[in-house]
């Protein structure tokens, strides 16, 4: 599909943010005066893109993720350029002390540019001195294992194929004749957080659960499929090696607490851009001492920022700021995680006496109930917007055709 002029301008602005960020860390010294100016330019480009994205991409759901990732790239630029002070020379120095020595063997200007622009999309800083800690292993029980090229490509193909199947079967057309009676059970109100006020019934609870599960499958499949497709292309072209593309998600078996959901099981792409900016504010600007108070503030800032990012994604979908529940959903995790920490602190002896299998089961039930309560305030406005605009949306029939179930 050919891009019109509005789309071309918007996408150019989007891509300029990582490109300018990459060129800055490639050629500007760590403390160059040029670096702050590039941050101002990146923010200006993001604001311009945000104002155009809904109009320019009104016919595609991609406008939502594009809007969100635009601002993630701004936070990423702030970290790379001003906080971590990333530079190509620092990477070369690090590799000289390690076993890789890839950059040392190729120090051309082209290689410098390619690596630095690639790093702007390497949100977890894989194979750099700035790599985050929470990177999943290729095989959970074999730390340090890296598959060979053909095994890696085979796994990528399976992940891409599986993701495409999920995206096909778990999405439904808005004109499906059986859909209206399910959509009518969804509430776009914030009162959905008060089940008593919304008069929840068993039917509504089941339908809400089905939409939530379907949305989760689609969201995960979209990220997993795109990540593995990019990994496959980069490894085939010889730009990267399998070690540069560790799994994007942790194991779903680790989803036994909210802390583990967001810290291990879910993707960690936003971790470095969001947390580094939060820590800069707390420890460099406000100069707070490290401790329980600053840890709590970091938790609040991190989830508030995540909520803002996903609010901007909702705006891209066409959900207005007053209708979006993204900020509510992510901020509700703050008291949820604080409650988990309190229970661990006060009941740790009792918890240790519980059978590990029962602990996991209780954890899974807790996480499921928390998401069933908190997710609708964010997901329902998106689903309703997609439905009323005639676009595909998460299916309450999961992977089944509605005609099969109602024939």
UniProtKB/TrEMBL annotation:
* Superkingdom in the source lineage: Eukaryota
Q: What is its main location?
A: membrane
Q: Where is the Wax synthase domain?
A: 245-332
> Which GO molecular function terms does the record list?
O-acyltransferase activity
Name any Gene Ontology BP term.
lipid metabolic process
- GO CC annotation: membrane
Q: Where in the cell is it found?
A: Membrane
Could you list this entry's UniProt keywords, alphabetically sorted.
Membrane, Transferase, Transmembrane, Transmembrane helix
Span-the-membrane segments of this chain are 12-30, 152-172, 217-239, 296-313, 325-346, 358-379
Question: What's the protein's topology in the membrane?
Answer: Multi-pass membrane protein
Under Pfam families, the record lists:
MBOAT_2
PANTHER family documented for this protein: BIOSYNTHESIS PROTEIN (TRI7), PUTATIVE (AFU_ORTHOLOGUE AFUA_8G05970)-RELATED, LONG-CHAIN-ALCOHOL O-FATTY-ACYLTRANSFERASE 3-RELATED
Family, per entry: Belongs to the wax synthase family.
Q: What is this protein called?
A: Wax synthase domain-containing protein
Give the organism the record lists. Aspergillus udagawae
